[in-house]
# Entry
Amino acid sequence: MADSIPVTRIEVPMSRINAIRDAVCGVTHLGEGPDASRLAGASDAPALLAFLSDPAVHAPIYTLPRPLTEASVEAFITDHIAQRAEGEGLLFVREDGEGGIVGYTDIQVWPHWAAGELGGALHPSLHNQGRGTAGAGMSFSWMFRALHLDLICETASPENVPTHRLLDGLGFERKGEVTSTRTDGTTRASLVWEVTRADWFARHKD
Ligand SMILES: CC(C)(COP(=O)(O)OP(=O)(O)OC[C@H]1O[C@@H](n2cnc3c(N)ncnc32)[C@H](O)[C@@H]1OP(=O)(O)O)[C@@H](O)C(=O)NCCC(=O)NCCS
# Structure
């Protein structure tokens, strides 16, 4: 089964599709306050490349450009600006206040299924302190509310234990395995998780 996410595909009415596209087009930040992530712009390419260049950041993520160069990262950013204009994708960066990037979030949206996927990474100095789980939990609630989604679908490589624990711990349901295609055409196995809006808010009453 190749690149078949989301596994659950429920068509939604055109009014909902339009509401989702409009929401994606209008978004500028993920989260609130000084820690909020902002949309990435083309001028972020050097700082984003510096952040992504650490294998502890990029190795587990199949959607990143390969090879990682300033030009490929700039193209990745401009492609996401085009995806936002179509209401189908968002790329956010989180800064450290000194011009460095310490995190990024890549959201893909399938408006006709009211479904979305979140990928991203934190700077390795921030790993294993509960920040990824807290940030992901906030982001999933935001995706359901701000983007009007009904389903969030996630993938992780079979060896990416922190992400397995994060998704299992937040109440996602395992949905099997797919083959993911990297941007250079190579493939890898991915485990798939999903959670519905109803199941998410039954468990996360924030
Ligand atoms: C995935 C990522 C965002 C998780 O963030 P984090 O802040 O390190 O995660 P947390 O501290 O919230 O830990 C999540 C769970 O993983 C566990 N964990 C963290 N680091 C671990 C490690 N090195 N080995 C095994 N388990 C680990 C934690 O104990 C926790 O499990 P628990 O809740 O059952 O105790 C972060 O590791 C990262 O940026 N990784 C590189 C990119 C990536 O893999 N992105 C996800 C794929 S899109």
Observations:
- The chain is about 35% helix and 25% strand.
- The domain at 14-203 is CATH 3.40.630.30 (Aminopeptidase).
- The two ends are 36 Å apart (CA to CA).
